[in-house]
Fold this protein.
Amino acid sequence: MVMLTLHISPTDDPLVAPFGGPPWRLPITLAAGQKLARGSVLGESTEPTVTAAPKDGGNTGTGTLNNATALRSAAPGTYAIRASKSGTSLGFDAIGPDGTAIGSTVAGQSGAWTFSGPIAFTITAGDKTFTAGDGFDVTVTAPVDAYRLSEAASLDGSALPTLVLAQDTDATKGPVETIAYRDGALRVEALILGEGQTVESIEAPLCASGIVLVQLPR
């Protein structure tokens, strides 16, 4: 990590470093469901969010659906994945949110089935065999093209930190227009990091946005 330690006069601003001029202030949309303080490190939500669960009522088989992803162009909504046959001919059909069939799984190694289309996933057999009608629901939430607190495990694109929030913002009731910093020097001790992020993990991505992290003497 390359981080500057400078011996200069202190500033009244706990976030913006007292040299190099003020950072560029960029208008952004903060995604709904957040209340963040100035200095929060943000990433942009640019990819769909995908969740998967066994169908309502559960399954006879004990296998799992894993590695569910979606193309950015995938229609939002719930995709029904259902076993169409039993025994050695077992396979799964995928039905889109509008009720249209979008394809069937391909059998891979013993006890595994894969699907690739607007969504993709792998189903792995468990101790109990799947039967016809078993299945999973895969829910795709459209990307919001707005900013969130950058957390390392996020799968919607916001794990990549790019900006720093310039003012306290309450978006708990819906998306809010606000201001973020880029292209400037910010004091690392004033940053607020999301879960799983560290100074080391955010430094290079923020630098790519023109943000230099500095450590000032106390």
Observations:
- Residues 29 and 177 are 5 Å apart (CA to CA).
- The helical segments are 199-208.
- The first strand starts at residue 4 and ends at 5.
- Residues 199-208 form the longest helix (10 residues).
